Amino acid sequence: MAEKIFTRNFDRPGSQSLAVYRETGGYTALPKALQMEPAAITEEVKKSNLRGLGGAAFPTGMKWSFIPKGSTAPKYLVINADEGEPGTFKDRYLLERDPHALIEGMIIASRAIDSHLGFVYIRGEYVKPWQIFSEAVKEAYDAGLLGRNIEGSGFDFDIVVHRGAGAYICGEETGLLSSLEGKKGWPKIKPPFPAVKGAFGHPTIVNNVETIAAVPHIINRGAEWFAGLGTKTQGGTRLYSVSGHVVKPGVVEAPVSVTLRSLIYDHCGGIRAGHRLKAVVPGGSSAPILTADEIDVTMDADGLKAAGSMIGSAGVIVMDETVSIPEALMVVARFYAHESCGQCTPCRESTGWIYKMTHRIVEGKGRKEDLDTILDVSKRGAGTTICAFYDGAVGPYVSYIEKFRAEFEALIPHEA
Amino acid sequence: MPKLIIDGKEVEVAAGTNLIEAARQAGVEVPHYCYHPGLSIAGQCRLCMVDIEKNPRPQIGCNTQAADGMVVHTQTERVLETRKSIMEFHLVNHPLDCPVCDQAGECWLQIYYMRHGLYDPRMTDEKVHKPKAVPLGPHVMLDAERCILCSRCVRFCDEVTGTGELGIFNRGDHSEIGLFPGKTLENKYSGNVTDICPVGALTDRDFRFQVRVWYLDTARSICNGCARGCNIEVHTNRRRVHHNHGRRIARIKPRHNPDVNQWWICDEGRYGFRWIDDDTRLLAPTRRPEGRDVALGWDEAIAALAQALKRYRPEEIGILASPQMSNEDLFALQRVVAQLGVAGVDHRVPPRVPGDEDDLLIRADKHPNRRGAELIGLGQGDARAILDGARQRRIKLLWIFQHDLLDSGFPPADVTAALAGAEMVVFQGPSANATSAGAHLVLPSAAYVEREGTFTNFQGRVQRFRTVAEPLGEAMADWSILGRLGRALGGTDPAFSAGRAEQVFAGLAGQVPAFSGMSYRGLRDAGQVVKA
């Protein structure tokens, strides 16, 4: 088994406490980072090939370098803990079982981008993670790890924990910022990008929980070590949330070069007894579906891109032959129709329309033109909206139908 | 100044200009719903897509700034297909109730469907239902099903009036415009949301169901409601006289003038036109011997007034001009005053209650031409002294234009005594009021929409208004009445023999230095500022 980074403490009792975190080397990257030049931290993260683990897989160090040089405006670090992508539950484990890794990573990242205030936007339904993380923040303040003059370095950093109210779109980085600002959680038009004009109009970096939790390890053990764990274009291990019809579902840590087959069969014990694999959604509900024949792909950003899907949030949803793909699409379509923020016309209008068509098909009232209409509407709307939500919905709309068309057609009555 | 090429046409625009405006300058129309030049960029209707060379996919024009060397195409197959798709999305849940919708005929869903849509509808499922005929305030009605959620109205209330009554509630295709709890859309500019609403979602409660818009005629005009002089369009219903309760004026809409009112007008101006078709209008010259009304012909009436004016010495005559009168009227009056040698002339009658004012458009002075009256020199007297003179019977002829002195800042008892003290009270104006009721001679003026003219606003901007409708009854423009009078008094000023307002204005430009060099042709739509 490969090295454990994120999960190294998950099974230790009290792993959420400062004491246990310290026992296992916690907060040893911090003094190092506080001695480093901010640009050197960013450079180290760039070299590590750390890519965003929330969904878009954007190179983290490069994102940090987009903060305008020499800007005297306040800068903010915002942590996206609004883990809402269906099939994803790894940030919850980090918040509950390794909250100090996030706090230490935030302090280091804030030094890199010259921020003195960080926000952690936690999904509203995550009550327990919020309680545990808030407790960890309090502990860190009490220990002088947050607030003024951290560890005598002269560097100040504060953390504000903010709870969302349950909208999926508030996990989209600019929707999150609107919500954080007290507005309706509508994504913002770009440009300007958050690094230039983000939260409250100031330069802002939004990073995922897991991404930032990786940072102390990179500072401690070096960019080369981290890069060496992964592929040429993406470093490290990552957490895969595996759910569905596997023997051992749960959060699995593996190098990003792991194959989907290995994840299912080596890490999760394979498909439940007496059943066989039918399809896998490899990166949360927005990732295009893969058939049982398509699982020999590496589970990094580029590997899945090459396979016509995406790594997204690495939420792996495994389906055996008992799953009706049309019903699965209807459920997914209902989700996107319910969660579309309603701002951009193509997304607002077609998510509801497509859900109605999938619902009709599942009810046996489909028409022969429905499938082509769904495909056409999906393709016409893709890429026309402010945020990636609709493109995320198009992933399942198109892939479920294109890969399992016969199953849909079987539900559509033949004309009399 | 970035130079760019749009559909093969090179255009140079100011830095920061977006591609919709840059295209407009190049004579190219980029269709859009949510973009409005007076509001912030929302970027949510997604209709204004254009192709920019070196860009992998079409971009929204509203949020893309023109850059030097940019090459923009608005007619590529990809853009045309995208527009068609976006139009289909806009209409997926739209009720398509054009036959009963007031917006029909001036609806941007209809216009753009015909220009950019023309697809065969594919949506056969039940549409989303939302509230209909919801009054948002005294002037605005909402049909949420027709709404395309462009958010212009929300941004107007947030950014222009700062009152924030409206929001978009719920999500996805259940999103709808609505009022925040406890709010009513009753700010002083609420009617503007019906103008900027590109569809039939927000309609004007005053205009709803009165006339189909294709029966309306339009003329450019200037609001007479205050010293701002907002540029307006007056829409008249002359082709379906049985509609709109027989009224000629159907509605008023703002007309863009960046230096005066931008795109907006206040509700008081918008809905303040009822008097024009009310039965309080004066229709014929009238004499009132012993309290009885006797209609006169104009010849008789002019002769009667000329005779009276000659009967008294100049110091026995008091004239209260009105800043509701146009520059032409006031100039013609000034010529008559000069001919008679009368010094007791003023236009300043204080209002009963001080006018309201704000920092957007509304001015406390509720008259459109105060500056004109000042510049033309009709304020050398003092209105109070004139009334005092009448009360003390030193002033024998009181000639009042438009003012209802009994509904003014002057004490009613003083006014009553003044009206009783004058041997002859002449009232000239478009509408009857308590003051005209006691006059001995009443001359009906055409309302400002019934003739041409100019007003000078508080900034000194001289702006033209056009003839919208014929004068009611025998009413005539004041300058015309005054011209006939001037001739009857033996005057030879060219203003007295003018056949058109433009000629009177030419006289004004020749005589009053502030107006020198101006002409109707030169004023154009935006008007011109008087010389300091």
Task: Give a quick set of tags describing it.
heterodimer; A: alpha/beta; Rossmann fold; five-stranded mixed beta sheet; 17 helices; 9 strands; B: 532 residues; Ubiquitin-like (UB roll); Alpha-Beta Plaits; 3 domains; seven-stranded mixed beta sheet; 15 helices; elongated
Portion in helices of chain B: 25-40%
* CATH fold category name of the largest domain in chain A: Rossmann fold
Order of helices and strands of chain A: HHHHEHHEHEHEHHEEHEEHEHHHHH
How far is it from the N-terminal to the C-terminal residue of chain A, by CA? 59 Å
CATH class category label of the largest domain in chain B:
Alpha Beta
CATH architectural label of the largest domain in chain A:
3-Layer(aba) Sandwich
- The helix count of chain A comes to 17
| Shape call of chain B | elongated
CATH class of the largest domain in chain A: Alpha Beta
Radius of gyration of chain A, whole Å: 22 Å
Q: What structural category characterises the helix and strand content of chain B?
A: alpha+beta
> At the third CATH level, what is the topology name of the largest domain in chain B?
Rossmann fold
Total beta-strand segments of chain A: 9
In what range is the share of β-strand residues of chain B? 15-25%
The portion of residues assigned to helices of chain A is 40-55%
Describe this structure in words.
By secondary structure, chain A is an alpha/beta fold. Chain A folds into three domains: 211 residues, NADH-ubiquinone oxidoreductase 51kDa subunit (Rossmann fold), CATH 3.40.50.11540; 84 residues, Ubiquitin-like (UB roll) (Roll), CATH 3.10.20; 87 residues, NADH-ubiquinone oxidoreductase 51kDa subunit, iron-sulphur binding domain (de novo design (two linked rop proteins)). Chain A is 42% helix and 12% strand. In chain A, the strands form two sheets. Chain A has a five-stranded mixed beta sheet with strand order 6-5-9-7-8, with helices on one face. In chain A, strands 3-2-1-4 form a four-stranded parallel beta sheet, with helices on both faces. In chain A, helix 2 crosses helix 9. Chain A is globular and about 80 Å long. The mean pLDDT of chain A is 96. By secondary structure, chain B is an alpha+beta fold. Chain B folds into three domains: 89 residues, Ubiquitin-like (UB roll) (Roll), CATH 3.10.20; 178 residues, Alpha-Beta Plaits (2-Layer Sandwich); 244 residues, Rossmann fold. Chain B has 15 helices and 23 strands. In chain B, the strands form six sheets. A seven-stranded mixed beta sheet of chain B has the order 15-14-20-19-18-16-17, with helices on both faces. In chain B, strand 6 and strand 7 form a beta hairpin. Chain B is elongated, with a radius of gyration of 27 Å. The model of chain B has no long low-confidence stretch (mean pLDDT 96). At the A-B interface, helix 13, helix 14 and helix 15 of A face helix 2 of B.
